[in-house]
Amino acid sequence: MQPIMDKGNVVGMIWLRVPWLQFFQNLFNDGIFGTIIVIRSNCEIDDDIRVLSFSIDGSSADFLGEFDAHDPKYDDQVVSKVILDLNLHAEDIPEGLCVPILTLDIYPTDELAVTFETSKPVLYTTVVVAIFAFTSLVFILYDYLVGRRQRKFMERIIKQDQIVSNVFPAAIRDRLYESGQKGSQNDALFDPLGGGGGTAGSPLADLFPETTIVFADITGFTAWASAREPAQVFILLETIYGAFDKHAYRRSVFKVETVGDCYVAVAGLPEPDKEHATTVCRFARDCVKTMSEITVKLEMTLGPDTSDLDLRVGIHR
Description:
Elements: E1 2-6, E2 9-14, H1 20-24, E3 35-45, E4 48-57, E5 60-65, E6 79-84, E7 102-108, H2 110-116, H3 120-167, H4 170-182, H5 185-190, E8 212-219, H6 221-226, H7 230-251, E9 254-259, E10 262-267, H8 276-302, E11 310-316
Antiparallel strand pairs: 1-2, 3-4, 3-7, 4-5, 6-7, 8-10, 8-11, 9-10
């Protein structure tokens, strides 16, 4: 419909008939189903606004009727377009005549919504969660294995340190560690003279002129041991030498070695002691007293002649 104007006044109208059904055919590609198109006019006929509804399924179109056929739940997804507006002022339109404004609204339907429903987001989320869980398990397992290896390594280091601490005084131990940082620690321990291809350097040797050495052996031990089981001999020596070690620690006496039934210790090294002779004498007195007490206690376990064992002490300054 097109108005005919004369000096700004409408003097006639040209009517245009649009075959909407044919117009909407082949509008969409095949495979797109469930679209509602609603054409609205602002002109009223018998107090009703003129409305036409069409259903578009792919390339085909169907006329639904002169009513609004869209689902109100899709009002927020409408695509609206004004397809006819002559932009006339009300004073330019003769009384009783309506110049329509046509609006085309496109609405989706449940059928169209179903075509866009997919399980891919859930699938992708599941895959991402699975990857994250697998990666987390790998890191947890890796952390556990590394931690276990480090604990084993630290336990080994602690045991080695304990062995070295039991064999060498603290000062000598620290010097061994320092020399091990410069060269090979194994060479320093097993090749102290630097021979045999060792790389430790000069040996650790100090002069201690003010020292006193004590030798303590068990009298009658050879005859006693020949009549005993090896386990009984071990119990005797372990008990006696364990008690002597406690006295040595308390008196600051350095235990050198044990050879069979002979216990060798020295005072005045590695820490200088002006009273080294007195310290050794007190240590020897403690050992003699402890020897008598231990043999009496062990007589019930190791045999009646165990209390006949005695301690012979030699002190050299």
